[in-house]
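Customer escalation, tier 2.

The customer says the design service returned an amino acid string that "doesn't look like it belongs to this structure." They asked us to rerun it and document both sides in this ticket. The original structure tokens are below, unchanged.
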């Protein structure tokens, strides 16, 4: 019986630790979501910048622009 009781105690401890770990991961998820949102925003800004640069260069090439010296 002592062996069976010790197994039950070990199982109870593992379940308790599992619950504690799951609450810790739930706390980390909002931070991860914020990081993903920031990365997505940065990527969208970088994509817009590249697109605008390409449009501007295309505009300059197609126009007769004189340099001011």
């Amino acid at each position: 019986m002592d062996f069976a009781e010790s197994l039950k105690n070990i199982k109870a401890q593992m379940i308790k630790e599992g619950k504690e770990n799951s609450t810790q991961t739930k706390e980390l998820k909002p931070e991860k979501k914020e990081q993903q949102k920031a990365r997505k925003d940065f990527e969208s800004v970088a994509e817009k910048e590249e697109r605008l640069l390409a449009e501007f260069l295309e505009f300059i090439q197609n126009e007769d622009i004189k340099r001011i010296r």
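Tier 2 assessment: The sequence is consistent with the input. The first helix runs from residue 2 to 62. Helices lie at 2-62. Sent an explanation to the customer and offered a walkthrough call.
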